[in-house]
Write a structure and sequence with these properties.
alpha/beta, single chain, 238 residues, 29% strand, five-stranded antiparallel β-sheet, 28% helix
């Protein structure tokens, strides 16, 4: 059950007045609202990254179509994919021109998607891999969706840029268990529904460079912002 997708769809249909909650496996909880995925413009930290887009673009984990609609307004030829049928329905209700239900971690392309000039992994969507090893698999699979001279644009957040003792303790617990600092398990709660536990991963910038080196990508540009966010442009190795 995709609780996050249901929250997006409810908001699109005018029934989303309640927030959803994120539960982490150490007991930490946070509250958020689907509304923020429906804003018109990109988030400020994404603007310099998006200036690097060129050619046919594939938006991985397009969610509510926030970036797809912006791409269309900029005249960028883009296709959105998402594993969530609810998210895809939201995009179609919002009149996104091109969106497809596709799980990049498991589905086979079989000609459904033409190779892109640019792939975008925005909004921390490198986390789709679920772990460092999963992120390596994700990067490998994305090589099959981009042209040989194509690029990938990634945005994320540096989890080390925190002084919250709860987060720091979680990081240390992961390291002690032999995991990456920011490998996490979480689930979503919305209205009276609780979703299953899922794995998510927020890589540090050094880990993005490590994943790239292991999977045949070169880091072309990397910028860390004062807000704690970062963006990276990667090119396929020749």
């Amino acid at each position: 059950m995709d609780i996050f997708g249901i929250a997006l769809l409810d908001y699109q249909k005018g029934m989303g007045d309640q927030p959803y909650r994120i539960h982490r496996d150490d007991g930490w909880r946070a509250e958020d609202h689907a509304e923020r995925y429906f804003q018109i413009d990109p988030w400020p930290h994404e603007v310099p990254a998006l200036s690097n887009i060129s050619g046919h673009t594939l938006d991985i984990g397009c969610g509510a179509g926030h970036h797809l609609l912006w791409f269309e307004r900029q005249g960028i030829d883009a296709v959105g994919i998402d594993a969530s049928k609810e998210a895809v329905e939201v995009c179609r209700l919002r009149n996104c021109k091109a969106v497809l239900k596709f799980d990049v971690m498991s589905d086979t392309n079989d000609g459904k998607l033409s190779r892109a000039d640019t792939i975008t992994l925005l909004g921390n969507n490198i986390g789709i891999g679920g772990s460092f090893a999963g992120a390596c698999t994700l990067f490998e699979r994305l090589k099959g969706l981009v042209k040989p001279d194509g690029q990938m644009i990634v945005t994320g957040i540096d989890v080390t840029a925190t002084d919250n003792p709860t987060h720091l303790a979680y990081h240390e617990k992961n390291l002690a268990a032999g995991r990456r600092r920011s490998e996490m398990k979480m689930r979503f709660e919305y209205k009276d529904q609780m979703g299953p536990w899922i794995s998510w991963y927020h890589p540090e910038t050094s880990e993005v460079e490590e994943i790239a080196a292991l999977t045949g990508w070169d880091v072309n540009k990397l910028e860390t912002l004062d807000s704690g966010f970062f963006w990276v442009v990667l090119k396929q190795k020749a």
